Amino acid sequence: MPRFVSRFMATPRKRNYQRSGNVLLFVLLCVLAGLAVVLIVSLLGPGSGGPATSHPWVGQPVPAAQLQPLLNADEPIDTDSFVGKVTLVNFWGPWCGPCLMEFPELLQIRERYTDSPDFQLIPIASDGTWMAGQPDLFEEETEQLKHDSQLVLAQYNSDMPVYVDMNARLREDLVKMSPNFGYPTNILVGRDGLIKAVWVGYGGDLTPINRAIRAELEPPKEENVGNP
Fold this sequence. Notes:
- Keywords: Cytochrome c-type biogenesis, Disulfide bond, Redox-active center.
- By secondary structure, the chain is an alpha/beta fold.
- The protein has helices spanning 23-44, 97-112, 142-155, 169-177, 207-217; strands at 66-71, 77-78, 86-92, 119-125, 162-164, 185-189, 195-200.
- Helix 1 packs across helix 2 (97-112).
- The longest helix is centred in the N-terminal third of the chain and has 22 residues, at 23-44.
C-alpha cells in the first residue's frame, strides 16, 4: 500500500482576479514558497514511497476529449490517441504556486524521456476559474492564459507543447468518477489507455512519478518456456 503525506495544491479561484506584471518577482516568490514547502515536508516526514494507485480513477479509461493547442503545438490532440503510448497528463496553471514549484521537475522528466518514442508529456494549462459541476457554460480565457503560460516557459527557455481543456469536458468527466482533483494533478496513462496512477497536489518530489513512468516503459518480461 502506498504511503500518503501532506501534498500542496491550489484550488480554483474566482474569474475576476488581478495578475501582477512583474513575472520575475512572482517567480521569485514561488521559489521562496517552494523552499518553505520542502522544509515543511521534511518536518512532516518522508515523501510518498510509490504511485497513488488507490485513487478511484486508477483502472479506468481516460475519458474521450479533445485538447486544443495553446503553446508550441499546431494541432489538437484526442485522448483516444493516448493508446499505444505511456502518457503523463499534467493539469497546471501559471497562477498556481504548487504547479510552479513542480514545473522544473516536469521539464526534467520531459528531457529525460525525449528520446523515448513511447512516452509523451501532455501539460494542460488552466486559468483557474473552472469549478466542478458549475451550471453555466465554461470556457477558458485562452488569450491571458497563453500569455501567462508563455511567461512561465520563458523562464526556463522551454518549448514544451501546452494544451487547454477548453470547455473542461475532460475535467468534468474525470470528477464524475471521483471529485478528488486539484492543481496540480498528474495522471499516468498506460499503453492500454487505462489510468495507472494519479497524484493530486505537489508533495515536494516527483521521484515517484518518474519511477512509475520507467516501470510502464519497461517491456514485459518474456516467460521462459522449456522444451518438452
